[in-house]
Amino acid sequence: MKKYMVVLSFVVVFSMMSGFVFAGENMRINVPFAFYMGDQLFPAGEYRFDMSYGNYATGSILNIWTPKGTDTRLLGTTAGTDKDKLANQLVFNKYGQKLFLSTVTIEGYKATLKMQKLERELRSQAEQAPAVITVAQK
What we know:
This protein is of the alpha+beta class. The chain is built from 2 helices and 10 strands.
């Protein structure tokens, strides 16, 4: 009986999480260059972003589908709003030839990705602040 309750608890939690993740804003956007998300390199192509922005205290959750549905990522982010920028856009930090996804804004809701090891290393070695590249949805 105890094992049954544990399994049932996991089913309920995952059902609630999937509903939470897919609630909110979404966009499809073409990224014309390869970029890093965390420490992993992703190819150029059309990406789909779904953002759950329901909990500003703990941050947003981004669900990201890669080109041709080859991969999906679920990322925790720092949430915020930027109602002055209602356009859907991605912001990248550029160190040399490497670009890192930094911020996703969908309909004025902004999610900032947490900086991972590779980007932190490049930032500490950089002599100046990284260039900022913005890709906006048409």
